[in-house]
Amino acid sequence: MSGRVLVTGGAGFIGSHLCEALVRSGRDVVVLDDLSTGNRSNLDGIPVTFVQGSVTDPAAVARAMQGAQKVVHLAALPSVARSVDRPLDTHHACATGAATVLAAARDAKARVVYAGSSSAYGNQDVLMKHEGLREDPLSPYAASKLAGELYCRSFARVYGLQVVVTRFFNVFGPRQPADSPYSGVIAAFSRALLAGRAVRIDGDGLQARDFTYVEDVVQGVIGCLDADSTGCQTVNLAYGQSTTVLDVYGELCRLLRQMHGKQGPATRAIPEPVFAPARAGDVRHSLADTTRAKQQFGFAPRIGFAEGLQRTFDWYRQLADRSTQQ
């Protein structure tokens, strides 16, 4: 499949994996990224056209949009915790950025896939979150990402733009930053455990998430990008299975012990986790109903949580090995 695709936030964790898959399928890929949270090195070896700039800058967006038939809008300022600290920055990057990209896509008559967030659901009595639920954002991040969704709906209605909103749940995998206060839990836990440090668990660790491996999310995004749907469609991209933070910690400890066992009898003790207060704005349980994504866009995950966790842990282990050798 050919054609030019613009990926905003393409130097980020999810974006770089998406660019890799798009290039592999024969696409001409343009990346727009201001590198505020992304890293140019994530795109090493991936032949893309790189434009450094912000999605809130109409001129930069228009420059990157030239010749694009399709757009995947991933750029955002992620993290619930960061949005609690910096709500206006989050709004500007997420809500204003989405409106700016959609306006450029309208002018280019380009199809758009917008990376939404499961945080839009908030805490609801329904166990499995489905797209028909009324949204209930609990944090500035959730509100700003939902604002982007509302812009998607309005642009589809007013301008006839073809849009798919893909609600991501907790995406994990290689290249996810692990050295920030806002790091995802799997990345942060892997890094700490491999360094022999105690992990920090916010709250009681019984909060549950639909952890989804990045490669499966990327394939879901491409399916939505290449479909012929009209209007604005909204779908969950996740596994439809729930895992607690404590369970994730236990699985990573098992992988660490397994690694130590292969290295010989000299294993070190794993420090007990440190429990911290629950974070403001955090959702208690997050579990996706993926029926619509499967029926409308053929979403069919292939890797799964267990294999994805093994691959992710191995990647951070190799990263730690390289750093000790330098």
Helix and strand arrangement:
Blueprint (H helix, E strand, L loop, with lengths): L3 E5 L4 H12 L3 E6 L15 E4 L5 H8 L4 E4 L6 H6 L1 H22 L2 E7 L22 H20 L3 E6 L1 E3 L12 H10 L5 E3 L5 E2 L1 E3 H13 L5 E6 L5 E2 H19 L10 E3 L14 H7 L7 H21 L1
Parallel strand pairs: 1-2, 1-4, 2-3, 4-5, 5-6, 6-11, 7-10, 8-13
Antiparallel strand pairs: 9-12
Distance between the termini: 41 Å
Largest sheet: 7 strands, parallel
The total count of strands amounts to: 13
Mean pLDDT: 94
CATH superfamily of the domain at 4-171 and 214-240 and 287-303: NAD(P)-binding Rossmann-like Domain
**How much beta, percentage-wise?**
15-25%
Low-pLDDT sequence parts:
none
Description:
- The chain is of the alpha/beta class and 326 residues long.
- Helix content is 42%, strand content 17%.
- It has ten helices and 13 strands.
- The strands form four sheets. Strands 3-2-1-4-5-6-11 form a seven-stranded parallel β-sheet, with helices on both faces.
- Strand 1 (4-8), helix 1 (13-24) and strand 2 form a beta-alpha-beta unit.
- The protein starts with a strand and ends with a helix.
